[in-house]
Amino acid sequence: MATAKPLPGPLAAGSFTIDEGRLLGLSQGRTRAKDLHVPSRGIRVPSGVEQSLLARARPYTRLGTADTVSHFSAAEIHAFKLPAAVAGPRAPESTRLLHLTRTGSAAPRRRGVVGHRARLDTSEVVVLQGVPVTSIPRTMLDLAGTGTLRLEDIVVIADDLICQHSRYMHPRTARLPLEDLVRFVQQKRPVAGLVLLRKALDLARIGVDSPPETRLRLLFGRSGLPAFEPNHAVLDLQGRPLWVDLACPEYRLAVEYDGGHHLTPAQQHADAVRNERTADAGWRQLVLNVFDVRNGEDWVLVRVRQALRAQGWSG
Question: Residues 284, 303: contact at Cβ < 8 Å?
């Protein structure tokens, strides 16, 4: 059996269209060789090539139609904090396939693609490494309109995007300021997802470092507890700030969510020092972790209510 002729360098690196192959000298027979995978008509992928979603999507936007990567595909490219139900290994195929939006009379229809049709303003499309992708605000709007994500899921995404703070050694800059997102929804005409996105932005708060912190804050808010603020600064006895994940200033209760990195010896030492400084400042500290969350909302609320009552809350 004859060995297939090596591909030109640019084609060996990842997905390409048949037209791109022909421009670099590939014959029709070579495009049908067994070392090339056919994910969809007009597209070839060298076998065994590892590539990003952005690289995999590129040739789909080079087939002569004005298609833009959108919805769940754009969300993955923008590194949104999506729930495991739509982004994990057990996610439905409809969220894992490539999502493309076309401005026109018909949505894209081809194997491996979930097609959408919408009128995209030029400001709603960004070009990343030569690939048109819906912007962060437009992608949030599209996701809100799918009916797949809950209000809480959209707030998690928003909190992560707008997070900014100047914590010592761990500062963060917002990927997109909250006012830019608010301005985007204010300027949009009624469209699917707009109401849900507006509600989510009303609940979003600056300074939240992780999805569990967002979900805990929303749980406290809908459960009749006193108000909790994210990224609150508690001053220790030396006047130095202690940044609290979720703070109830009225009852001087600090709630910390400790993720997996808190299991290292160095972090455990730092946490012990933090706990001492918090107590010396006259605050009670409640530490929650993944095991508390897995035990369910009722378990978490019992622990928080007990801590608040110990601080004088009568609820």
Answer: no
**pTM score:** 0.91
Residues 6+ apart with CB under 8 A from 271: 258, 262, 287
Residue ranges in 135-281 assigned as alpha helix (H): 136-144, 151-162, 178-187, 194-203, 211-221, 265-280
CA 143, 149, 154, 157 torsion-angle sign: negative
pLDDT band at 4 (very low <50, low <70, confident <90, very high): confident
Cβ proximity of 4 and 34 under 8 Å: yes
H-helix segments, 204-254: 211-221
Angle at 223 between CA 217 and CA 226, to 5 degrees: 70
Q: Identify whether 74 is part of a domain.
A: yes
Residues contacting 305, CB < 8 A, separation 6+: 225, 313, 315
Last residue of a domain, one of 160, 176, 203: 203
For residues 28, 33, 39, 42, the Cα torsion angle rounded to the nearest 10 degrees is 0
**The two three-digit tokens of residue 175, written as one number:** 């990927």
| Containing structural domain, residue 40 | 9-51
pLDDT band at 306 (very low <50, low <70, confident <90, very high): very high
